[in-house]
Write a structure and sequence with these properties.
6-stranded antiparallel beta sheet; 272 residues; alpha+beta; 4-stranded antiparallel beta sheet; single chain
């Protein structure tokens, strides 16, 4: 699972790996000073408290012992913070995405996960279940802000699951996952850990099964800046992800996809 960005466009081997396996790891794509800026930004935003509709942390007293209520994920920070928007549209990330999509990417979502020690993980899922992109797929760019391994709840993926249709979930174990939906790994495929260093970026197809387990470390956060993208040929997607952004920051609105999808359930709004 070692992949490296070359000078210039992605190599044919890198694109082929993404097409066949559903993911690509770009080691050291973001510089240490960039990672430090991201970390400082979101720790400062956390210290300043709630952002109604996007980030609503609870006090230790209010959390009932659930550390994730004190450090919940921060949704769509690009909509209210210029630095977050700049990193969502980072040129190196957009260049990789252009090579993987084979067309210009459009940014649909940003998130920040703090995942402090003791935090639950997130059950295995597929992003296409939520984004409902038509035609094509979404691609995630998962930026490791801290070293992310299996002790502190690093990401796991299921290679080659990019070839699957959207799977219908069942209820996840609430002791292990803070989200309620979980999909099973089909026979013949297996879960693989992705051990990342700060500055590494994991790109993966929207049909790839992925998730994480609880942070079992004593004192290590597993912070991550995560964004989702679609290709410029996208005609419609779930309304939560409109508007979209070009690499130059131009705002675009696509048709809202109101189809309930193959599982016929509610429209969910927050992958990862």
């Amino acid at each position: 699972m070692t992949h490296q960005l070359l000078d210039g466009p992605l190599s044919d081997a890198q694109v082929e790996h993404f097409d066949q396996q559903g993911y690509l790891i770009m080691r050291g794509l973001l510089a240490p000073e960039e990672i430090a800026e991201i970390k400082d930004l979101f720790m400062d935003l956390h210290a300043k408290g709630p952002i109604p509709g996007y980030f609503e942390p609870k006090s230790a007293e209010e959390s009932g012992g659930d550390i994730l209520k004190q450090y919940p994920r921060m949704m769509h920070p690009h909509r209210y913070n210029e630095t977050a928007c700049r990193y969502m549209l980072h040129p190196k990330i957009m260049d990789v995405l252009a090579g993987l999509f084979r067309e210009e990417p459009l940014a649909a979502q940003s998130m920040f996960y703090f995942k402090p020690p003791g935090a639950r993980g997130q059950a295995l899922h597929q992003d296409n279940y939520y984004l409902k992109v038509e035609p094509g797929t979404c691609i995630a760019a998962w930026v490791a802000v801290d070293p992310a391994d299996q002790e502190n709840g690093g990401m796991v993926i299921v290679p080659k699951s990019n070839n699957l249709e959207v799977l219908c979930p069942h209820l996840a174990d609430p002791e292990q996952s803070f989200t309620k939906d979980e999909v099973d790994v089909p026979e013949g495929l297996e879960i693989v850990p992705t051990n990342l260093e700060a500055g590494d970026v994991l790109f993966f197809n929207g049909s790839v099964i992925h998730g994480s387990y609880p942070n079992r470390s004593k004192d290590r956060f597993r912070r991550a800046f995560i964004c989702h993208y679609v290709g410029e040929s996208t005609r419609r997607l779930a309304h939560f992800y409109n508007p979209l952004y070009t690499r130059n920051g131009e705002v675009l609105v696509k048709e809202n996809n109101t189809d309930s999808g193959p599982c016929g359930g509610e429209e969910f709004t927050a992958p990862h």
